[in-house]
Amino acid sequence: MPEKTNNKKMQILLLTVLLAAAFLRFYGLDWGTDHLTGKFHAFHPDETTIIDNSRWVDTDLRKIVAPYGNAPMYILWGVANTVGSLIGIDPFDLTINTTARFTYRLARALSALLGLLTVWLCYKIGDHLGGPWVGLMSAFFLAFSPGHIQQSHYYTVEVPFTFWVTLSIYLMQEMPSASRRTYIACGLAGGLAAGTRLAGLWLILPFVIAQVWNGKSITDRLNHLATIKVGYFLLALLVVTSVCEPFLLLDPAHYFKTDTVLQISSSIKVATGESIHVWTLSDFSTLPYLFHLTDLLPYAVGLPLELAAGIGIALLAWYRRKSGFLILSWCVFYFLVIGRLHSKPVRYIVPMIPALAIFGSWACWQSIIWLRRHWGPYYLPALLVICPTLAYGVGMMRIYREEDSRIAAARWIQHNVPSGANVLTERGGYPTSWMAPPDRYNGRLDDATYYIRAAGGILFRDQIAHLHRKIEGTDWIIIIEENRMRQFVTVPEKFPIPYTIYRKLASGELGYDLVTSFKVSPGVFGWTRSEDGAETTQTAFDHPRVMIYQRREDANPEDLLNLWSHRLDKDPSLPDRHILEGFEAYATEDWASALAAFTRAAEVQTDHILSRVLQRMTYLRMRRNTEAKKVWEELRNMGYSGLISSAVGLSHAGYNSEAAEFLIQFTTEVTDDHVSLVDAYQKLSKLLIRLERWNENVRAIQELVNLDAARHQAWNLLAVAYQKNGQIQEAISAVDKALLLNPAREAYQITKMNLATTLFNRGDSKEALDLYQQVLGGGSEMLNLHYNIGVAYHSLGNYDKAIHHFRTSTKRFPNEAKSHRALGFTYIAVNKNLEAARALTRALELDPDDTPIKEQLGTLSERDN
User: Fold this and answer.
1) 378 and 414 fall within a common domain
2) Closest Cα partner for 424 from 488, 500, 479, 489?
3) Are strands 422-426 and 476-480 parallel, antiparallel or unpaired?
4) How far, in whole angstroms, is CA 107 from its chain's centroid?
5) HSE of 178 in the Cβ direction (CA atoms, 13 Å)?
6) Which of 358, 383, 398 is at the close of a domain?
7) What pLDDT, on a 0 to 100 scale, did the predictor assign at position 674?
8) What residues have CB less than 8 Å from 385, skipping those under 6 apart?
9) pLDDT tier at 865 (50, 70, 90 boundaries)?
10) What's the CA gap between 542 and 549, in Å, rounded?
11) Are residues 374 and 442 in the same domain?
12) Is 270 a member of any domain?
C-alpha cells in the first residue's frame, strides 16, 4: 500500500511539473503582436528563415536557403497545411497579417510541444539513472530552465534538435539488449536530429558506448557492434538524414554553395570567425569554453544548477553509471566542438541543458542521500538549487506578459516625434526602420555593416564622412542596443570609428540626448534579473533595449565630426596621415615619395589593407612588377572583403581607374568566394559607369549574372549597362528577366520605362508606346508614366488618347507642371481652347517662369476677344 501511495504521489508531482512546463512554454507564443492593433511582427530572423522556407517543401527543395536541415520545415509544412486546410487558409501566405500570426503561433506551438516532451524525456532518463526522484528533479530543472523556456518560444532548430537528441539517448538506455524496434526508432530519431542540424551525427558516439558498455571481453563488446540491429539503426539514421538533407549526397555542389550567408558553408565560416559579421563582433572579446561557463550557462540554467551539474558530472565519473555516461559522452563531445568556435550565441548550448538538468538532479539526490545520514536539514543543498531555478523560470514570463519593448517604443514615437521629422533608424537583424514609417517621417537608414566592410580599406576620414551624410539634419536617432551598439563597443581596436561613434552617442558628446528607452527584463514580484553585459542574442529577439535619442537645440554634430576627422588626419600613429601625404606625392608623379609614405602607413598598422594596395599601385607605376606581384600575393591572405573595400577607398580618393584595375585583377584571380565575387563585380560596375567604359561594364555585369542567374538585381544592372552601351533590345530582355524574378520591384519598372523613353527619343514611338503599356500593365503608377504615354500618343497624332493619359497624370500627380502644360497644348491641337486655358493656367501657377505658356495664354485670350 505505501508503494502505491508513493507511486501516486510521484505521478501527481510529475504531472504538476509537466503542467508547469507546459504553461511556461505555451504562454505568450504570440509575442511580437501589438495587442492594441493586432499587427504581428516577426522579430526573430532565424525563425523567419525556417518559416519562410517551409513553403518550398512541396514545390522545389532547391529554393530552400537555410543553414539548417530540412526536418523542421518538413514538420511545419505538414502540420501547417493540415490545419490550414481545415480552417480554409494558405498558411504560407505570410503577406496577410492574420495568416502570418497564425502560422508563427502554430510553429511556436510545435516548438513548445517538443520542449515539453523533452521535459518528460528528462524524467525518464533521470529515473533510469537514479530512480524516480532523480527523474522528477531532472524534469523540474529543465521545466524551469530559463534558456529552454525562451528557446521554446521560437520555431528555430534548437528545441527540435534538443528533443531528437534527447529522445535518441533515451532509446539507447537498454542497448544492446533492446529490441529491433527500439534500434529502428533510435535511428529515426537520430536521423531527424541530423536532419535538423548535422551535429546530430555525433550521436554515433553514445550509440557506440551503449553497444560496448557491457561484455566479458573486448572482443565480446566489439561483437555488439556487428549485429543486425546495429545495421537497422544505421540504415534508419542514413535514410532519414538523406531525406532531410537530400543534396548532401545528390548534389554536394549545391549543398555547399556560398551564395549567401544563410547557406551552410557560409554559416560555418561565420561560426569559425573566418567571415566577420556584426552579430559576431562581441565574440572577439570572449574566450573559448570559458565564456560558455561564465556567461552563457549561468543565464540559460542559473549558476546554482550549473554548479550542481558540475558536481554531478564528477559523481557520474566516480560511479560510472551507464545512463549518465551516454548523455555525458554526447554533452562533452558537443561542448568540445561548439566551445572552440568564434561565434558563441546562447542557442548553441541549448542541446546541453537536458544533460545539465540530469547531472544537477543526480548531484542533488546524492547530497540528500549522504546528508540524511549525517545532518538534519538534508534537503537544504537541494533547495539552494531548486529555489533559484524556480525563480529564474517563472521570471521569464514577464517577457511575454508585458508589452514588447519595440512595440511600446513605436507607439511612443508615434505620439512624441513630430510628423515630418528627420529620423535615423537601423537595418539589420533587429531593425528599427519600421518604427518610423516613410509616410510620416523623413527616414534615413544607418548601414553599420559599412564599417566592417570599410575596415582597413577606407580612410578614417571617409568612414566619418559616411556618418556625416547620415546625421546631417537628423533630429532623432532610434536604435536597438543589441543590433549594433553593444557589438561595436566591444571591439575598439578592430573598429575604432564605430566604437567611438557609439561611445560619443551614449555620452552625449555627439550632440544627441537619450530621451527615453524601452526594456523588459525577466523577473518575479519585486526582483528583476540583471542582463547587463549579457550575450546579445539572450535579449535581442524577444526583449531588446530600444533607445531613442534627440538632437539638442544647441548641438552641431556635423562640426564635431569635421573636427574629429581633421584630428585623425594629423595623427602620426594612424595610417591616414601618411596615406594623405602619399596621395599628394602620387598626384605629382613623385613615385619614390609616394611609395615611402605608403610604406610608413603600412608600418604604422601592419594589417591596413589600403596601405598595401597603394604600395602595389605605386610599384606598378614605377614598373616594379615583381614587387607589385609580391604585394598582391600578400594581400590575398588579408581577407577578400578588405580588398574590395580598398577599391572603394581608392575611388573616394579620386583614383577610379586604379580602383577599377584592382577589381579587374581581383575578379580575374579570385574564383573561390562567390559572395566576394558578387560584391566585387557590383562595385566594379559602378566604377566603370563613372569612367564611361560601357563595353567593359556590360562584360562585368554579364559575369555577375553568370554567378547567380536568380539574382534579379543583377539582371536589372545588366539592363542599365546594355542601355548605356546602346544595346536597347538586350536591355529590354534583361529587365524583363529581372521583372520575371521580382515583379513587385518598382525600380525595375522604372528601368523599363527609361528604355521606352530611349526608344522614343530615337524616333521609334510605336515600340516605345508598347513598352510603356507593358509597364502600365504591370500595375505601376510611377511618376511620368502616364505623361510619357501621352507624349507618345501625341507624336502619333492620337490626341484623344494623349489627352486621356495627360489628364490621368494631372490627377495622380497634380503638382507636376509639365503634365498640365502638355494637356493644355494638346487641347489646343483639337481646338478645345477653354480646356486648354484652364490646363495652361494651372501649369503657369506651378511654373511661373514658363514663357511659352504665358505667350500661349496671351494668344488664347486674343482669340476669345
Assistant:
1) no
2) 479
3) parallel
4) 20
5) 23
6) 398
7) 81
8) 141, 304, 305, 308, 360, 364
9) low
10) 22
11) no
12) yes
User: Does 339 share its domain with 417?
Assistant: no
Non-local (6+) Cβ contacts of 730 within 8 A are: 722
Q: Please, what is the angle between helix 746-761 and helix 785-795, to 10°?
A: 20
| 863 within some domain | yes
Q: Name the residue range of residue 105's domain.
A: 2-398
For residues 196 and 159, give the distance between their C-alpha atoms in angstroms, rounded to a whole number. 10
The residue to which cell 548550448 is assigned: 349
* Alpha-carbon distances of 541 from 147, 402, 426, rounded to whole Å: 13, 15, 15
What is the distance between the alpha carbons of residues 35 and 409, in angstroms, rounded to a whole number? 14
The set of cell numbers assigned to 834 is 477653354
- Gap between the Cα atoms of 419 and 410, Å rounded: 13
> Do 721 and 751 contact (CB within 8 A), yes or no?
no
Rounded to whole angstroms, how far apart are CA atoms 507 and 820? Answer: 53
DSSP strand pairing (546-551 vs 476-480): antiparallel
Is the pLDDT score of 198 beyond 90? yes
Q: Which of 477, 422, 487 is nearest to 446 (CA)?
A: 477
pLDDT tens readout for residues 805-860: 999 999 999 998 999 999 999 999 998 988 888 999 999 899 898 888 888 888 87
Residue with more model confidence, 257 or 826: 826
How many Cβ atoms sit within 10 Å of the Cβ of residue 290? 10
Distances (CA, A) of 750 to 703, 733, 754: 24, 15, 6
- Kindly state the helix (H) or strand (E) to which residue 430 belongs, with its residue range: none
Cell 522579430: give the residue.
Answer: 43
Q: How many angstroms separate the CA atoms of 423 and 490, rounded?
A: 26
C-alpha cell at 766: 510605336
Pair (373, 499) in one structural domain = no
- Regarding whether 386 and 436 lie in a shared domain, the answer is no
List pLDDT tens digits, range 339-356. 999 999 999 999 999 999
In the chain, the largest separation of any two C-alpha atoms, in whole Å, equals: 123
863: CATH: 1.25.40.10
Is residue 792 situated within a structural domain? yes
10 Å CB burial of residue 832 (0-12, 13-18, 19+) is: middle
- Nearest CA to 147 out of 172, 109, 118 is that of 118
Same domain, 344 and 427: no
**pLDDT of 202 higher than 90:** yes
Overall size of the chain counted in residues: 865
Last residue of a domain, one of 353, 378, 398: 398
Helical H runs in 493-608?
Answer: 496-507, 536-539, 557-569, 575-587, 591-604
- The C-alpha angle 279, 280, 282, rounded to 5 degrees, equals 100
Distance (Å, whole) CA 368 – CA 251: 56
* Number of structural domains found in the chain: 3
pLDDT at 1: 38
422 within some domain: yes
pLDDT bin (cut points 50, 70, 90) of residue 864 is: low
pLDDT category at 2 given cuts 50, 70, 90 is very low
- The rounded percent of the chain whose pLDDT value lies above 70 is 99
Q: What is the pLDDT of residues 761-789, one digit of tens each?
A: 999 989 999 999 998 887 767 888 899 99
Residues 428 and 345 in one domain: no
Q: How far is C-alpha 374 from the chain's CA centre?
A: 56
CA distance from start to end of the chain: 118
pLDDT reported for residue 710: 81
Name the β-bridge partners of 550: 476, 513
The predicted model scores a pTM of 0.86
417 and 394 part of one domain? no
Q: Cell 568556435 identifies what position?
A: 341
**33-84: per-residue pLDDT in tens?**
999 999 999 999 999 999 999 999 999 998 999 999 999 999 999 999 999 9
Mean of pLDDT over the chain: 92
